[in-house]
Amino acid sequence: MSTEDWRPGAPLENLRRRAQILARIRAYFAAAQVLEVETPQLCPTTVTDPHLHSMQVPGHGYLQTSPEYAMKRLLAAGSGSIYQIARVFRADEMGRRHHPEFTMLEWYRVGFTLDQLIDDVAALACLALGETRCVRHRYRDLFRTRLGLDPLRCSIDELRAAARRYIDLAFDEADRDTWLELLMGQVIEPTLGIDTLSFVVDYPPSQAALARLHLDAEGQVVASRFELYHRGVELANGYHELLDADEQRARFAADLRERAARGLPAIAIDEPLLAALKSGLPDCSGVALGLDRLFMLAVGSDSLREVIAFSPPENR
């Protein structure tokens, strides 16, 4: 990047709009008596999720992909409902809708069900986007309607065949979740929330991450999780939070096995988080929302560079 190229990449009017929306968000949580908190973004360890790539700072630890673990320690200590507007970091993410450093809004509501949290997310999103109609889709129903497949029961061969029909593939072998995520991301997601806020619920149990499991209306085990889409853009990911420390340890261990199988570096399990869960995390639901994407949609853009003051050269 030339030293002459010192000016911000985003129009100043968009940065003013960004500041206005941030002020509305803080006012919303203040009115609801949700406490704003700050937690470290440079920590000794990081997430074990094989799909997330953390940035390591030699001699210091990792820049965090989310403030979740530290916020749950605050919840276990009795903080009550909390929120944070945090700078977070993910390696290998660059493009119109991806940025290695971005702003995340994460919040936890003590005593909230997942349905209550969805209503909370919709109300907050409308602060930026204006009054917008909300709809809910079951993950399973989307696959049945768009692809003619039951994602919870179909075979890997059926998933592979569907991917071949819709996507120009560079590989032919993958595990079940990879095929599901590919079909969701490439085929279904772009059609969601075109003129609505679209919430997708009841994900496969293998994609629960830190969410609880429950039985759906058909008696199938699914994750108590949702994602929010608007104009084909994924905005938020929410959970009815898992409280069981032993189950969480088992999921971390499964992540580490998957990382080893993929040739990814091992990550030390976050023992303070598990100790917090063991001591007693209150019943709560939590969500992470990508603020830069929300701002992007609010100003009618299709690129993050329009709402981020200074972007890396590759994104400008």
What do these coordinates show?
The chain starts with 11 loop residues before the first helix and ends in an 18-residue tail after the last helix. By secondary structure, it is of the alpha+beta class. The strands form two sheets. Strands 1, 5, 6, 7, 8, 9, 10, 11 and 12 form a nine-stranded mixed β-sheet that branches. Strands 2-4-3 form a three-stranded antiparallel β-sheet, with no helix packed on it. Helices cover 36% and strands 22% of the residues.
List keywords for this structure.
316 residues, alpha+beta, 9-stranded mixed beta sheet, 3-stranded antiparallel beta sheet, 9 helices, 12 strands, 22% strand
The outline comes out as globular
* SS-derived structural category: alpha+beta
Biggest sheet record: 9 strands, mixed
Low-confidence stretches: none
User: What is the arithmetic mean of pLDDT?
Assistant: 94
Rg on CA atoms, Å: 20 Å
Number of strands: 12
Q: How are helices and strands ordered from N to C?
A: HEEEEHEEHEHHHEEEEHHEH
What portion of residues belong to β-strands?
A: 15-25%
Helix percentage range: 25-40%
SS field, number of helical segments = 9
From the N-terminal CA to the C-terminal CA, the straight-line distance is: 10 Å
In short:
The chain is α+β, with helices and mostly antiparallel strands and 316 residues long. The protein has helices at residues 12-31, 68-76, 114-129, 139-147, 156-166, 176-188, 245-262, 271-280, 291-298; strands at residues 35-36, 42-43, 55-57, 61-63, 82-89, 101-110, 134-138, 197-203, 213-215, 221-230, 233-240, 284-290. A hairpin with a 2-residue loop joins strand 10 and strand 11 (233-240).
